[in-house]
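Page header: ASSEMBLY MODEL / two components / 447 residues total.
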Amino acid sequence: MERNGIGVAQLGSDRQPSLTNRHWVIGNTQDLARQGIVSQPMEEPRVEHAWRLADIRAGLPQIYAATREMFVAQMLNLDLIDGISFTKGCFTGQEIIARTQHLGRIKRRLHRLRLPAGTWAVGQAVHLADGRSGRLTELAAAGPELEALAVLTLETGSAAGATGAQERADAGAATSTLVDATELPLPYALGSA
Amino acid sequence: MVVRRLIVGGMRLFGHVRQIFATIHAVKFARKQGLITTRTEVNLRHVPFYSALLRLALRAAAFAAFNSASCRLSTSASCRVSWPGVDTRARVPSDDDMNQSNGTAAPRGNATPALGSLSQFGLVRFAGPDTLSFLQGQLSNDTDRLAAGAPLLAAYSTPQGRVVAVLHLLPHSSGVMAILPREIVLPTVRAAAKVRAACQGTNRGCQRPIRGVRPKRYRRFSGRRAARSRCGARLLWSETASESRSSVRTGSRR
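Prediction written out in full:
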């Protein structure tokens, strides 16, 4: 909704309750100041960190420069968090997205991981000890460790070998890192796991 | 010193005039005068000069368009201004919630209201009569829901189905606001502009035409019309500029 040019919106929608405890407030800087909305702003690094960590815990994907044009929408779980409409008609990329959905070929999904402290980067190719591989899409420190969202293959062990190799080939020059990560739960179920 | 710079400037200007003259007139004439050797050389010499000017103008227009906007987050609805209809129980994940090992549970208790500036995000505003139909043809989610006033999560993909950006769309009286990380604002706007340039009433790779898309006469890419499309949707983008944030704190500027 909107008042005096300032828009307020709740994140997510009714169909995805786990996202809805945050709001956007959008407006001109001077409008916001006049209405007293930004009288006591939090320090920015803290805000950014809190927001990213909340995104991770909500399983809400975000694309950065390092991860552009790498994933199909379902790999980012967008079909599970009400980000794709399969009834609306045509849109750019719809053929691939619809085919992926209806032929059940979603081989990768967004997972939430706990990573040991270290230098990680968004877009970094990783593989886990159980044979799954993928890429980090979002990172935030959580205490001494880090939490991350990563698009990972669903199969474990040798079955994922081909896909993993493909993923590593995508990365170019096989820079995939073996990580000792723990998987954390997401607020929604990964449907076709 | 001044005289020397004037002379150099004058010579440079004369060079440009000479080259423009040479380009306008027949290449043969220019060759006869011995100014240039080939046509390509003329073009190559001219490109950096004019494209630099054009780039400068475009950049100025982009900043003038929306530089005072900023994107903020409210982690609590109980801020001082009351917003009819906002669920007042909704609030920030507090530090306690953040520190518990499994943060998937809904936050509990009363945290202090928190509101902060999200400088990592940028805004893109889509405006114009065909905005919703243009977005309907581009984004993965149903913009009819946006028309009904609801915010929307949607992916913007390439024709190959690869996600270029995940957008949070908000309806606004001045158009549709899209929130996305600042570092991918420009690439995304460029991708959208490319689509609009190719769009002539039908969506490529798709049998059905985009609803309501009317091809418009091609306009020159300049000034405030910089991002006006042939499809009638306009894009404006903004970055949460550091000066606009500092002006909040001091209250001095703007």
